[in-house]
Design goal:
The protein has 374 residues and is α+β, with helices and mostly antiparallel strands. The chain has helices spanning 2-50, 146-154, 183-223, 318-326, and strands spanning 59-73, 78-91, 96-99, 102-108, 111-118, 121-123, 127-138, 160-162, 167-170, 231-245, 250-263, 268-271, 274-280, 283-290, 293-295, 299-310, 328-343, 347-362, 367-373. The chain crosses the membrane at residues 30-53, 202-225.
Length: 374
């Protein structure tokens, strides 16, 4: 009895240890998922804060100008010009930019020569608000006209413009506050409205962030987390021994082939040992071992194999004679790689890839031609 119970007790202890190890691995797996998600979320929040939520200063520029009246006198140097200028407010923010009335002033060598009103308006998110102003440029207020005479004689009149726009960038629009009728009621209503406005603003921020997060997670799931089947291909081949006989049709060729495993996933692809077989008209004429290895994330693992292609196993050589006489020897190759794609050292998924390639050997040039892999 003790001899019978000994192994049973040992098996129970081994099963308990194995069960605890599996639970520990699961906990570590979930912990790694949690850490990866936190890091990912932190990155997304930083991106959101540094792009969408970052308020940038709009740019106010004169874009172009045309002239209606153009009166420039050289003898008694003066000018009276009516200019139609197109100005633009470039808003690179993710919210509207509302600006108040302002004035744009044009100067000749530091002296004002004309001004115009810039009416209040709104530049939409990530766009340029364009509008025209009309300004009369008159030289009557210039203290000295000596430099003006020289500029008019040279044909070039130097002007500058200055203006300041004051406004607000509005992210995630909230409803405007209604006007109160009485002072006390107005104060209470204003307080309530401010609180409601803050709640609405916070709610809009949360909803916008949730939508943004959902989009990013979907994008992440459809790109990084999507497991694709690697591609296994013959890339090229050279020959060491090349013995082809036409009279008693046969061939004995030693081929050095370069193979490639193209892994488009964001994780490594580890594959096991396998065998690649070459065929002449569906009859095996040679094979080689493909040793286990690892294709790195988003890269191609390249390696060479040496295979002896021999025609001794062919049941019929009549077709072979015709092919050798034509100078073209058709071949095909087949293989299956079995392995696992590993994402973040934690997530693993089994993936098998099939090789199905066809090629021809040009007997005169001793070279591979028409290499096609499906």
């Amino acid at each position: 009895m003790p001899q019978a119970n000994g192994p049973t007790k040992h098996d129970e202890e081994a099963a308990t240890v194995q069960s605890e190890e599996l639970r520990r691995k699961k906990r570590m797996k979930y912990l790694a998922y949690g850490v990866a998600f936190v890091v990912f979320q932190t990155g997304i929040i930083l991106i959101f804060a540094l792009t969408v939520m970052k308020i940038k200063t709009p740019k106010f520029r004169v874009r172009s100008a045309t002239f209606e009246n153009f009166d420039v006198v050289a003898p008694s140097p003066s000018f009276n010009i009516k200019m139609n200028a197109e100005v633009g407010v470039k808003n690179t923010n993710f919210g509207h930019y509302k600006f108040d009335n302002s004035t744009i002033t044009f100067f000749y060598k530091g002296t004002p020569v004309g001004s115009a009103i810039v009416p209040n308006a709104r530049a939409r998110a990530r766009s340029t608000k364009k509008f025209n102003i009309v300004v009369d440029l008159i030289s009557t207020s210039l203290p000295s006209t000596s430099e003006l005479g020289n500029d008019i004689s040279s044909g070039v009149l130097l002007l500058s413009s200055q203006s300041t726009l004051r406004g607000k960038v509005e992210l995630f629009k909230v409803y405007p506050m209604p006007q109160a009728k009485h002072d006390e009621e107005a104060a209470m209503e204003q307080s309530k409205e401010l609180r409601r406005k803050k709640r609405m603003k916070c709610l809009v921020y949360v909803v916008a962030f949730a939508v943004f997060q959902t989009g990013i997670i979907l994008l992440f799931a459809l790109t990084v987390m999507k497991i694709r089947t690697p591609k296994f291909r013959v890339r090229s081949a050279t020959f060491e021994t090349f013995d082809v006989v036409t009279t008693t049709p046969s061939f004995n060729i030693k081929m050095n082939a370069e193979l490639g495993v193209k892994n488009t996933n964001f994780g490594h692809y580890k594959f096991d040992n396998s065998t690649i077989t070459f065929f002449y008209k569906e009859t095996p004429v040679g094979s080689a071992v493909v040793y286990k290895a690892r294709a790195r994330a988003r890269s191609t693992k390249k390696f060479n194999i040496v295979v002896d292609l021999i025609s001794t196993n062919l049941p019929n050589t009549s077709n072979l004679r015709n092919d050798i006489s034509s100078g073209i020897l058709p071949l095909s190759s087949e293989s299956t790689l079995r392995g696992k794609v590993e994402l973040f050292k934690v997530m693993k998924k089994k993936k098998s890839t099939q090789m199905d390639c066809s090629m021809t050997i040009n007997l005169a040039d001793k070279a591979i031609q028409n290499l096609i892999c499906k």
